[in-house]
Design a protein that fits this description.
Length: 205
């Protein structure tokens, strides 16, 4: 096909970057070498239409609200870890299906509006509440820390937790959200190994 030079964009390139390399990366452009100031005709343009130039903002704005809700629901129903949202009073707003089952409930609706005080022992619920209120006050989250969970029946579990401030579209903190991964098996294995090491040390004395 016939190419008119006055219709092609001109890009200034440094003499440090080979013209042939630029032609390979961006065919269909006139490249002007800043050293020699000589226009160079690049490789012929293709007859094929170029794909749309999608930007992140374009893609984000193209997602309808109903589809964004679908994405969140899929996440909450599928993620294997405990994932949740809480309001400014540390009451549950949304919980992942795995978290609902961990708490021993049948439906997420059974937990919405409740707090940790209605699920865990007072010891754990109090510390969790303090942590969350501090996040709301300062806007600073807590990332990847080991958290001990104590339950009303006396049992103990461990999780690796991340808790962050929940903000509205105006940037105002309205609560918290977080994700917790159960690491109880790992912690028990570490305790058993530590106990065995102590026994071996005592036996060698």
């Amino acid at each position: 096909m016939l190419i008119h030079l006055d219709t092609l964009p001109i890009i200034e390139v440094s003499h440090l970057l080979p013209i042939r390399a630029m032609q390979t990366i961006a065919p269909g452009l006139i490249l002007r070498d800043q050293k020699n100031i000589q226009p160079n005709l690049a490789m012929p343009t293709s007859d094929k239409a170029s794909p749309p130039d999608y930007t992140q903002d374009t893609l984000r704005n193209s997602i309808p609200p109903c589809q964004e809700s679908l994405f969140l629901n899929v996440l909450m129903e599928s993620v294997p870890d405990a994932f949740y949202f809480k309001d400014a009073d540390s009451r549950f707003l949304r919980l992942s299906t795995s978290m609902v089952r961990k708490f021993g409930f049948e439906s997420e609706n059974d937990l919405i509006g409740k707090t940790d005080f209605e699920v865990f022992s007072g010891e754990h619920a109090e510390q969790a509440f303090i942590d969350e209120q501090e996040i709301i006050r300062t806007g600073k989250g807590i990332v990847d820390f080991e958290e001990k969970e104590t339950w009303p029946n006396g049992s103990v579990t461990w999780v690796s937790s991340t808790k962050l401030p929940l903000k509205n579209p105006d940037g105002v903190i309205i609560g918290t959200f977080g994700i917790s991964k159960d690491i109880t098996a790992r912690k028990r294995a570490e305790d058993e190994r530590r106990s065995l090491e102590i026994q071996l040390q005592l036996a060698q004395k």
